[in-house]
UniProtKB/TrEMBL annotation:
Keywords per UniProt: Dioxygenase, Iron, Metal-binding, Oxidoreductase
Species of provenance: Chrysophaeum taylorii
Protein name: Fe2OG dioxygenase domain-containing protein
Pfam family, one: Methyltransf_16
InterPro entries referenced in this protein's UniProt entry, alphabetically: Methyltransf_16, Oxoglu/Fe-dep_dioxygenase_dom, Pro_4_hyd_alph, SAM-dependent_MTases_sf
Transmembrane segments: none
Names of the cofactor(s): L-ascorbate
């Protein structure tokens, strides 16, 4: 059947032929791309254009008509070529037709400046071959225009695009269609335009920008021009330099030997660089003063400065242009940091030069990096209620499934998160090395950054650091009066005060349970327990609440039992960092420790290890309360040894001490090898060595503030007691197996206990 199709006033005569399959007809997506071409003919002028999966040839023929200076090749599977040739004859223009099978043909027939493809990603089975063809055709400088129907194309397509070293941005779209521009990742970053400069330092780094070996510092690439270096690095990390070894986080090593030797890198992989890296030094020092949240803001601000982009400006007082508020905020912040007077110049200078080497100009609304997006999708970062809220609010097409809608929201966040533009999810918090810790957005209307904290786990103390900077988001949701969304946002940003306010007076078990958790995060463990008791009284059958209650009450408070304490325990302590760390050798009986390892291993053989305690990294542990004999032994150790030890270390009465949680942890090179830097959610923490040090190499508890490269470690039965707010990590176990008991405690001396 031959029909005349008119798009933007241009007529095409096309025969469609269903007998050759789905490509034998024209689709709305193609018409959308034609409309784009009609509006932007200059982008196609004098270009060599390749169309993939041309079908009837609609898009290619349209371009040839509207932009006669372009040369066009339309391609499709061999059995479509007859139809294509016929349509080329009907419409004329500088168009050739050829067979191109994405799966069979490894070669792209020629060199092209632009690739177009519409309605080619409608089925997951097409994603891999299509992306393969795009990657082959998308050489340096090439732009691909890909039109898709949103309800057909799943997130898998976007993942494959990114995995192929390509990047996408949404050029335009509506509820049904999306027109994407796809290019090599490097090309996207190569073209800074400064009307909106976006920063993506760490995410960028995760994708392979590095110029020196992470371990020995050897120059892998010449860093004079970082864009070139980045381009070359990406080539290197995709295999063309075979002597270079890439870690999954993007760090590069000059050899396998260096990669294997890089314990410090493993320990702090992703968020971490070397211990003497300016970023780590800067943040570690700030962590001392509990101003890490501000450090994130400062680093981002520095990153902005380092890009050399014009400072954001806004108009005030009837048109007087003032330097953006955030710059003055930055200096104010610097001024407020304890001790900044003497450290500002050096630390900030170091930081700036660090960031300068990595900062990236981006002008496009970029998608979330894959790590962040996966974290969203898997509910790690985005709480269920916020997911639901987003889907409810933004679901573009009522026929879409919720998952599908969420994919789109995450694939093209700028479309949905307006008017606050998402800039980057950052991995800048050294305390939680492997997790994105804040989202940074540029709020154009306000002329300032919005920094939102992302998770509420793995952190003790502090919190709420981003509160004052998230006003805009709050305002918007205030208008909505959607308590669930407000709550979700407050949870996302650690705004515990707000959570308490929003839940105040609610008596449901779920609300009481959440209030209990908030009290715990705040360090008010007694209140936490009280609220948990209220929750469990109302809902004794609720499995989560019951488990929390069981865990919270399974550890004994300190009670002197006569037969426990024949000889009072007086530990001999080695102290570090003004008593914030103490090591006690031989505190517990080695043989008993061995028996506990056997018990736990036996249990693990039956029900497996849990891997969910630390959310930033998979850990391998068993809660002490899950193994009755272990719990019994542990409670005795608490009364006779561990509480007295804490009393001696921190001068707090043993009777005031309570256990928040205790876990048996297993480290080995091929499972959980190490634990990134973090703070515990505890006032006082203990790591207890449960097996002989000769059983393994490496291992130990690493404290960056000690200022030495090696960790502290003890032989079986030894204990390291430390201030839970002190930054620390599990040093990599290189051989064998290391077992420890990790114990989190607090003293209720300040509270009524
Ligand atoms: O492996 C270690 O020594 C540290 C363990 C730790 O910090 C934890 O489990 O919270
Ligand atoms: Fe810890």
């Amino acid at each position: 059947m031959v029909t005349t199709t008119t798009i933007s006033g241009v007529d095409l005569e096309l025969r469609s032929d269903w007998s050759v399959g789905i490509g034998g007809s024209t689709w709305t997506c193609g018409e959308r791309l034609c409309e784009y071409v009609a509006r932007h003919p200059d982008e196609f002028r004098c270009r060599r254009i390749l169309e993939l999966g041309s079908g009837t040839g609609l898009v290619g023929l349209f371009i040839a008509k509207v932009v006669p200076e372009a040369s066009v090749m339309v391609t499709d599977l061999p059995d479509h070529v007859g139809l294509l040739e016929e349509n080329v004859k009907r419409n004329g223009g500088a168009v050739t037709a050829r067979a191109l099978d994405w799966e069979r043909d490894d070669e792209i027939p020629g060199a092209f400046d632009i690739v177009v493809a519409t309605e080619c990603a409608y089925h997951p089975r097409l994603h891999a071959p299509l992306v393969g063809a795009l990657a082959r055709a998308c050489g340096p400088g090439v732009r691909c225009f890909v039109g898709i129907t949103k309800s057909d194309t799943t997130l898998d397509f976007f993942d494959r695009v990114i995995s192929a070293g390509l990047e996408y941005r949404l050029l335009e779209g509506d509820s049904y269609f999306g027109l994407l521009e796809i290019r090599r990742q490097v090309d996207f970053y190569r073209e800074p335009r400064t009307e909106v400069v976006r920063l993506w330092t760490q995410c960028w780094e995760n994708r392979g920008e590095a110029v020196v070996c992470t371990q020995c510092g050897e120059d892998l690439l010449r860093p004079e021009d970082w864009v070139e270096a980045a381009a070359a690095t990406i080539e290197a990390s995709t295999g063309s330099r075979d002597d270079v070894v890439a870690c999954a986080c993007g760090a590069l090593f000059c050899s396998e030997a260096c990669r294997k030797g890089a314990d410090m890198h493993r320990l702090l992989c992703v968020g971490h660089r070397d211990a003497d890296d300016p970023l780590v030094r800067f943040k570690t020092r700030l962590a001392d003063d509990d101003v890490v949240e501000d450090a994130d803001t400062l680093i981002l601000a520095a990153a902005w400065l380092a890009t050399g982009a014009p400072w954001p400006r806004h108009h005030e007082n009837g048109g007087v242009v003032v330097v953006s508020a955030w710059v003055s905020e930055l200096w104010k912040l610097l001024g407020e940091l304890p001790g900044t007077a003497h450290r500002t110049a050096t630390d900030f200078g170091e930081l700036l030069s660090f960031v300068r080497s990595r900062a990236v100009h981006l002008e496009r609304p970029h998608p979330l990096c894959r790590v962040c997006r996966d974290a969203y999708l898997h509910g790690e970062i985005l709480p269920e209620s916020l997911r639901e809220g987003l889907v409810r609010k933004y679901k573009p097409d009522p026929d879409m499934t919720d998952d599908h809608a969420l994919s789109w929201i995450l694939a093209a966040p700028d479309e949905f998160f307006e008017p606050v533009r998402l800039v980057a999810l950052c991995f800048l918090d050294v305390r939680r090395a492997a997790t994105p810790t804040c989202a940074v957005a540029w709020a154009p209307a306000e002329g300032r950054f919005v920094v939102a904290r992302l998770d509420d786990r793995c952190v003790g103390g502090g919190g709420g650091g981003g509160n004052e900077t998230v006003g805009r988001i709050e305002e918007e949701e205030e208008e909505e009066k959607d308590v669930e969304l407000l709550l979700a946002r407050a949870r996302l940003e650690d705004r515990w005060d707000d959570i308490e306010e929003l839940l105040a007076g609610q008596e449901s078990p779920a609300a009481l349970y959440e209030l209990s958790r908030v009290a715990g995060w705040r360090g008010d463990w007694n209140l936490a327990l009280e609220r948990l008791r209220d929750a469990v009284e109302r809902a004794p059958e609720d499995p989560t609440i019951a488990a929390a209650w069981k865990s919270a009450t399974s550890f004994f408070p300190y009670v002197l039992r006569e037969d426990d304490v024949k000889i009072p325990f007086v530990p001999s302590l080695e102290r570090y960092l003004d008593g914030r760390i103490a090591v006690a050798k031989n505190a517990l009986d080695a043989e008993a420790c061995g028996r506990m390892v056997a018990l736990v291993e036996a249990r693990a053989r039956a029900v497996g290890w849990s891997t969910s305690r630390h959310y930033s990294v998979p850990t391998t542990d068993v809660p002490v309360g899950d193994v009755p004999e272990l719990l019994d032994w542990f409670n005795t150790q608490l009364a006779t040894r561990l509480f007295p030890l804490l009393e001696a270390t921190f001068q707090v009465p043993a009777a005031s001490l309570r256990v928040i949680d205790a876990f048996f942890v297993k480290y080995s090179p091929d499972a959980q090898r190490d634990l990134p830097l973090h703070e515990d959610q505890a006032q006082y923490s203990l790591t207890i060595a449960m097996n002989p040090a000769v059983d393994y190499e490496g291992g130990g508890t690493y404290f960056p503030h000690l200022g030495r490269p090696e960790p502290l470690n003890v032989d079986v039965g030894g204990v390291i007691a430390f201030d839970g707010a002190l930054l620390h990590g599990g040093y990599p176990t290189r051989r064998g197996t290391r077992y420890i008991l990790a114990v989190f405690t607090h003293s209720c001396i300040e509270e009524e206990c």
